[in-house]
Design goal:
Blueprint: H1 7-17, H2 55-80, E1 84-86, E2 90-95, H3 96-102, E3 106-116, E4 120-127, H4 128-138, H5 152-177, E5 182-183, E6 187-192, E7 206-216, E8 220-229, H6 230-241, E9 342-345, H7 353-357, E10 375-379, E11 382-392, E12 395-403, H8 406-413
Antiparallel strand pairs: 1-7, 2-7, 3-4, 3-5, 3-6, 4-8, 7-8, 9-10, 10-11, 11-12
Length: 414
Amino acid sequence: MMSDLSQAEIDALLAGAGGGDSNDSPAGDAPAAPAAPAVPDSGDGGEDYSGLLSDIEKDALGEIGNISMGSAATTLSTLLGHKVNITTPSVSVAPMNVIQQHYPLPYLVVEVAYTVGIDGNNVFAIQATDAAVIADLMMGGDGTHPDTELNEIHMSAVGEAMNQMMGAVATSLSTMFNKKIDISPPKVNLVDFGKEDFAMSDSTEPMVRASFRMEVDGLIDSEIMQILSIDVAKEMVEALMGGGEEEPAPAPAAPAKQSVPPPQPATAPAAPQQNYPPPPQQGYPPQQGYPPPGYGYGGNNMQPNVVTNMPVSPAQFTPLSVEPVQINEANIGLILDVPLLVTVELGRTKKTIKEILDLAAGSIVELDKLAGEPVEIQVNGHFLAKGEVVVIDENFGVRITEIATPAERAAHLQ
């Protein structure tokens, strides 16, 4: 007996008869590509953490990471001299010990603390092999043959790169949230997730993990992670979803109304003398907090005496002399041919003996001057002027932009 079934109903019955086994696929279908390993939203004991963040909150965190890491990629590209691309993240929730089980590799962990605008910490983890490539590029190499072991100099170079990246992230967050976001200098540590325990708090506490794919011009094609607590993640989402409006500053409390006694008549008897602090000079605005509370008749419980009939006139000063100072230049020619040593100081820094002994060819010494700041011009070791560095043919030169005033020269002598 034939049944009147449509082709769609027959296909549905055949699919159901397969028992849901993914291996029973038609011969003509190509096998599905293996999915990338993902951290489940659960703990070791099977706890379900998927409800801690809604899908909307995860999407918001992904958008925050996408915009902020886009700025970080631009900064890193400038530092390395290579094109850097960081993709949109995937967001999940899991304890730190579960995250370490899924990524049992040595990671360079960069911990950043928010100091203004957000309360909490932010951790970025980058594979040690990728950090070695970044360190090699920062130190003038081509990134193709990096050192396999990260020493203190390499860690410092990567720390500077991450410092610049996190600064760009903080700037992007300030723009998105419409409030000032500031961070502390990053702390850089090398942690083997397969052997060592690392956690911002309790290793079983659920954390938010945002996974990015980072590509550096054919040298790096890997994954970096951003790890932050649930509270920090929700605070970011609220700042983004709430329109980024800053909390209005509390209005200053109105000063308490005080009953001021009426001014004494001109014929009133003189008040007993009190030990007042010296009054401000006439003609100048009154000093803040003068007279201090508690002075007046009868001790501390009385209001200060208010004098309203005292004559006040502007202060008068003797005009300063404007006559030009006579300079005797008769004997200046006697010293015109005296040689002087002119020195241009680019910048300064302080280092310990250990840091000096660690210097080698290719080491980078960071000075206390920013790029583009004027350099100091000294004559016989004394500050004279400021200028900018120029190139004349193949030689360096200095164009004087500002002559120091006597007050500035005296300040440099102290």
